[in-house]
Amino acid sequence: MQSPDIQPAIHESSSPAAALQAFCEANFDAAPLIVRAAGRINLIGEHTDYNNGFVLPAAIDKAIYLGIIKRNDRQLRFHALDMDDHYSGSLDDLQPSPRHWPDYLLGVVQQLQQRGYPIAGFECAFGGNIPQGAGLSSSAALECAVVFALNELFDLKISDLDKALLAQAAENNFVGVRCGIMDQFASIFGKRQHLIKLDCGLMQYEYIPFRFDDVRLVLLDTQVKHSLASSEYNTRRAECEQGVALVKAHHPEVNSLRDVSLAMLDEYVKPGHALTYNRCRYVVEEIQRLHDACNDLLKNDLAAFGRRMFATHEGLDKLYNVSCEELNWLVEMAASQEGLLGARMMGGGFGGCTINIVNKDAVPEFIARASYGYQQQFNVPLNAYVTNIEDGCRTI
Ligand code: GAF
What we know:
Elements: H1 16-27, E1 33-42, E2 54-55, E3 57-70, E4 75-80, E5 85-90, H2 102-114, E6 122-128, H3 138-153, H4 160-175, H5 182-189, E7 194-199, E8 204-209, E9 215-225, H6 229-248, H7 262-268, H8 274-298, H9 302-318, H10 325-335, E10 340-345, E11 351-359, H11 363-378, E12 383-387, E13 394-395
Parallel strand pairs: 4-6
Antiparallel strand pairs: 1-3, 1-13, 2-7, 3-6, 4-5, 7-8, 9-11, 9-12, 10-11
Helix pairs in contact: 2-3, 2-4, 3-4, 3-5, 4-5, 6-8, 8-9, 10-11
Bound molecules: 2-deoxy-2-fluoro-alpha-D-galactopyranose (GAF).
């Protein structure tokens, strides 16, 4: 796949930003604008964003780095450093690529064009340290990096909210995943040492400080991504919509699960729609759980917060059915460990990471036990990341 005139990426560099800089110096005619777009975690509020509910994500210290320069024509050149792959195309012919990764960039370009933003051809290169398939939103980070970079490069004056919505629209319409807004919003709006409490219905948000010196956020990466993930994601959305329709027939003012109570579900969905009822019940409970968890944080009660994380996991597993054997094993293992405050699967499900709140002093032992046990159980190495909450998209 590599074009003959392209220098290879420097994979051995410890810093993805340095590798990107070296690639750009060797291959670009001009100094690039460089953007860092973060991956995300989510503390609580899972599968609630597309139900107009609330989420509690944060941007992290793993990111996509993208360097970009203008061209004098309408050509597009993309270089994916971590894949040693390159794409060439034209602004006038945006087609989904069989290699798939260019779609995250092309989708953003298409959305900009559809909204009438004046962009010309450009060349960009990107790489990073967000593990792919780990549920840390590397694709949303790439979309956000592109929209952020193009906004700067062509002085488009797009608001931060519109950047997030545009990146989400790229994923919905060009990539074809009906994701909610959480991942793109977190990548753009992330703030160091803060969670974002986002109301996905009203698109209003507040920052909640997350500064606890005695604990660490530990991500345990199952290194599995079961193939059900994207088809089941869209099925869950449809099931939630069906539940809303059943309630709305009696309560026309209801527009999403955010407007629905457990009593309404019991009355209008439970009889005859057991599976839909379970899905909706999980979402309605999770929205309430998030509000309660935010109150825990305000009281500095991480133990109570952690218990709610376990309840979220239970709901995702038993009612929403988006967990899997590997995630369940990690959460059960975590529950028995010293110094563990809370654990649950994170993100869409069917693989990826668990998120764990662990007392600082217990972290090495926790990771060692999890890694050993996971390898014994599944014969798959476990990856563990102790993560910090960082700023969202910015130029560097
Ligand atoms: C994925 C989606 F992209 C998000 O929008 C969100 O729905 C999440 O799954 C589940 O909470 O990350």
